[in-house]
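Q: What changes when 2-keto-D-gluconic acid is included in the input?
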Amino acid sequence: MSEKILITRRLPDTVLAAAEARFDVVLRDNTQPMTEDELKVALAAYDGILPTLGDPFTAEVFAAVPEPRCHVLANFGVGYNHINVSAATAAGILVSNTPGAVTDATADIALTLMLMSARRASEGERMLRARNWHGWHPTQMLGLHMSGKVVGIVGMGRIGKAIAHRAHHGFGMEVVFLNRSPVEDAGVPARQLNSLSEVMSTADIVVIAVPGSPATRYLINAEALSAMRETSHLINIARGDIVEEAALIDALQSGQIAGAGLDVYENEPEVPEALRTLENVTLLPHLGTAALEVRTAMGMMAVENLFAFFDGKALPNKL
Ligand code: 8YV
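A: The predicted holo structure follows.
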């Protein structure tokens, strides 16, 4: 009899077909994350789970199911801040993610937001759509010229390096970065700085590319933002709660910084009214990996981890 697998949101058809060819798949076709209560039921009812963004696998969820039927969580996505991996391990449950598959697409969205924020693209489009464009003139809507400026990358992992590559080769930007361990080779000429405030004060555009975790929650708070210049921009493509949204709103309203570009939010899909009404912020609905081939590669990677587990092999992407 084939293993029973829960997939918590609809994945591309080819991924579902690959999973269904081997497993007895239950697809939860819903846009919202599961609740903690639903996860407790699922841990007892399925042999494996393929979780998606935000499904709250907290320590309490694992503790509530002392003898789970499920022994593998193959997360769809590189970020696993919604899964307490040490509590899962203690409960005898293996966890994997999808590194690599998301890198280029997420870096592309970072560059999209850098350009949109620097060149005031969404503000301009809103002006035009509202019929408030009354003619071109030489000093209209002047933004930040990215070429030759300094990008400061917070978190020089795979995605940080892919952003550095694009910024250096595409725009001739100087790259500075912060990383908790020394980085021998950033892939392009780059300077590792010693403190967050140094990166914030040196860069014309700061990009957040660290994983979300309790350790990085509110890393970018009022104090960090106060080190930025009034001509600078902040971009977040990582996790929403790395940036203290209320402090960012203050910084954007007061002119402490010139602009921001966000793909992620503290309480997705909620976006504060204050952010939605500000002109100097570009807001995307967590589009980081939103391309069919990317979501397919992520899904196939998660499914391969399930195959390995049920074949009795090591998980290729075990956390
Ligand atoms: C995914 C992401 O779309 O991979 C990640 O960590 O943030 C996204 O790009 C999402 O996590 C899917 O679960």
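Observations recorded in class: The mean pLDDT is 97.
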